[in-house]
Design brief:
This protein is 48% helix and 14% strand. It is α/β, with parallel strands linked by helices. It is globular and about 45 Å long. The two termini are 24 Å apart.
Length: 264
């Protein structure tokens, strides 16, 4: 059983749900990313997603776009992210998921990316813009490296696409709360339960909800029917608005402790 499956099994046994936290790798530097990841895990996060900065983050809103820009300006690279994960892994055995786009993976090489990610200690990969219909080569590489392949589904996903995704996904399924890009929102759409129910009828995998989840009450709202909640932009914004890495890490820890109260 890999770390993701183990985490969800342990949560289910405790009647708890997953809090998944996203941070941008290398923003503002790799040492801060390591400190943030360890603080976030220590404050209650069950899984940490580390975004690989990319020059054309089409699924991301201004907050994460800016974080990717800052990280790239500071010299972040795919290899640097792997080294960062390896460094975090020496201190922590909880699940780490990489979130990226297909272009950096293709340029790095599918098999080499999967092997190096797994060797560094990653447990799964989300490629935001990889259609399930074109994912067979990546799926083969990921399976060979024992990496989970995590797909996104949205309110616009058809039953046919949900069935296709359910057949190929592993780890968990990431349900996007709304159409559009990432970014903190004041409220969560109220019609998500029907979508989650449809996905669950097609797959036995955990279903988590992200995009627009930014408050403890959002986490509580969506984990009443989903298996977890993903918080990204609100955490990335803390990093941006803090005066120092130390302040960012401490503020992130406090925020995550409040978010985690919403899962049980």
């Amino acid at each position: 059983m890999n770390r993701i499956d183990k985490a969800f099994a342990e949560l289910k046994a405790k009647s708890d749900k997953a809090l998944i936290c996203f941070i941008t790798g290398g923003d503002p530097d790799f040492e801060t990313t390591k400190d943030l990841a360890l603080k976030i895990f220590g404050s209650g996060a069950d899984i940490v997603e580390i975004g690989i900065p990319f020059s054309d983050p089409l699924a991301d809103g201004p907050t994460i776009q800016s974080a990717s820009f800052r990280a790239l300006q500071a010299g972040a690279s795919v290899k640097g992210i792997f080294d960062n994960v390896r460094s975090i892994r020496t201190h922590c055995d909880k699940p780490i998921v990489l979130m990226t786009y297909y272009n950096p993976v293709q340029k790095y090489g599918l098999v080499k990316f999967a092997d190096d990610a797994a060797s560094a200690g990653a447990d799964g990969v989300i490629m935001v813009d990889l259609p399930v219909e074109e994912a067979s080569d990546w799926k083969s590489a990921a399976d060979s490296a024992s990496l989970a392949t995590i797909f996104l589904l949205a309110p616009t996903s058809t039953k046919e696409r949900i069935a296709l995704t359910a057949n190929m996904a592993s780890g968990f399924i990431y349900c996007v709360s709304r159409t559009g890009v990432t970014g903190a929102q004041s409220s969560v759409p109220t019609d998500l339960k029907a979508l989650v129910d449809t996905i669950k009828s097609a797959s036995g995998l955990p279903v988590v909800i992200g995009f627009g989840i930014s408050k403890p009450e959002h986490v509580k709202q969506v984990t009443e029917f989903a298996d977890g909640a993903v918080v990204g932009s609100a955490l990335v914004s803390i990093v941006d608005k803090s005066a120092s890495s130390t302040e960012a890490t401490e503020r992130a820890g406090v925020f995550v402790r409040e978010l985690k109260k919403g899962t049980s």
